Amino acid sequence: MFSVQNPEYIKKMIVKDFDFFVNHAPFFNSEDDPLVNGMLTVMKDQRWKNMRNTLTPIFTAAKMRAMFSLMTECFNESLDRLREATKGGTSHDVELKGWFTRLSNDIIASTAFGLKVNSYVDQNNEFYSIGQAIANFRGKQMLKFFIANAMPLVQKILGFKVFDAEKTDYFKRLVIDTMKYRQEHKIQRPDMIQLLIEAREETDQNWSDDDIVAQCEFHSNHLS
């Protein structure tokens, strides 16, 4: 693996010679996993360019600032829970990793998937539980990822997916059902779902449901 550190070379690669450095090296073979294969960072060549052209107009500074209000709500709920736990001046131990994991979960649910959850109150909500199961790279999940990354031919022969289909289908249904409901009832909310609805309406590209859902996954990965 090479690491480019010369600023002039970097500038040349991402500007003048960018056409030669479009594609990212895949972490594993995602051809049989449409939600992973549809992420912007995984798409290749013209397909990547088309999706980038679709998404670029909707990611304006104003729309990103509007999305910040959803994050603020999650921060306030987190602080409210902390104030409640320390009411009356009582001491309260906080496991920071779990605390911020729940905060990240609520922010991702709200901004990327258009779902309002409070993981401090409902600690075993479905979104949190399934999200943690997917992100838990231990045991069997770690073994599957290792085989897919180091031995893609073995993965193809065994015919397994890195991520459990039942869990990824949950997120797919969540996004598609939310988009459908909003379009039918003309509901708007400053989140990723709304941006994708607008992008889909304005583009001449015929993106599949999997491609659209994958962008929510891509957005959530960057938030986490």
Automatic annotation (TrEMBL):
Q: What is the lineage of its organism?
A: Eukaryota, Metazoa, Ecdysozoa, Arthropoda, Hexapoda
Function as written in the Swiss-Prot or TrEMBL entry: May be involved in the metabolism of insect hormones and in the breakdown of synthetic insecticides.
| Pfam families tied to this protein | p450
This protein's record includes keyword Heme: yes
Keyword annotations from UniProtKB, A to Z: Endoplasmic reticulum, Heme, Iron, Membrane, Metal-binding, Microsome, Monooxygenase, Oxidoreductase
Indicate yes or no for the key word Oxidoreductase. Answer: yes
Domain of life the protein comes from: Eukaryota
InterPro entries this protein is in?
Cyt_P450, Cyt_P450_E_grp-II, Cyt_P450_sf, Insect_CytP450_Detox
GO CC annotations, alphabetized = endoplasmic reticulum membrane
Q: Which cofactor does it need?
A: heme
Subcellular locations according to the entry: Endoplasmic reticulum membrane; Microsome membrane
Tell me one GO molecular function of this protein.
oxidoreductase activity, acting on paired donors, with incorporation or reduction of molecular oxygen
Q: In what way does this protein cross or attach to the membrane?
A: Peripheral membrane protein
Tell me the organism.
Answer: Ceratitis capitata (Mediterranean fruit fly)
This chain's protein is named (Mediterranean fruit fly) hypothetical protein
Report the family membership: Belongs to the cytochrome P450 family.
